[in-house]
Amino acid sequence: MEGMTAVQPPVKSADRTLEVLEALAASRERRSLVELSRALDIPKSSLHGILRTMARRHWVEVDPTGTRFGLGVRALEVGAAYLDADDAVGLVSSVLDDLSRQFGEAVHLGRLDGPNVVYLAKRESAHRLRLYSAIGRRLPAHATALGKALLAHSPEAVAAMSLPRLTANTITDPDALVAELEKTRERGYAVDREENTEGIVCFAMAVPLADPPTDAISLSVPAPRLAPDSEERITAALGRAMTQIRAARSMFS
Prior knowledge:
Blueprint: H1 12-27, E1 31-32, H2 33-40, H3 44-56, E2 60-62, E3 68-71, H4 73-85, H5 87-103, E4 106-113, E5 116-123, E6 138-140, H6 145-151, H7 174-187, E7 190-193, E8 200-206, E9 215-222, H8 230-252
Antiparallel strand pairs: 1-3, 2-3, 4-5, 4-9, 5-6, 7-8, 8-9
Helix pairs in contact: 1-3, 5-8
């Protein structure tokens, strides 16, 4: 119809190349040609050509046997460039450091990306018993404090989300999740009570850099290390961190 813009189909070769990158990033381990072909529904002959080209440009690395493929150093360079250019990561860096020093626990900056939250920055726990995490790791938003802190500002997004169960405590009912998001808005912070990882409790607040916010900061604690006043102390510290971020933003705006 006149006045309407037709949706253009993706360029097939480019689409497939990006699918390969995303599949290798998601698996976090080397995968064979056959595995990738099955997972992506790309013919082996076409996929082999894509992988050969990506390897030549160092987006993909091949193991010594020549049969298994993983992300290459070029992917790291581009990912690092993204973080270096991101204003939010630079602005909250000192806040992450402060929270890490105060509590000695894992601290994360995460960004909402559709139904998931992605780690953009982290500070490791000072303890042996700690949460496994990695920058770039993608987790279902509904099962994390980071994700719930952000979904609380857009609860209507829940209707279109899949809510897989990760632990016995994961909220998988849409109505129950919307009710939890309402509680999150009322108290000003989100809590993940072993909903993503058994034995880990997490508290998070949305970062006040956008409206609605797209980033959040969390602090994760193994359940055995939680004290009766931990929630109060951690959320108070997160609140002070957000005040600090608002002040820093006003200086540069």
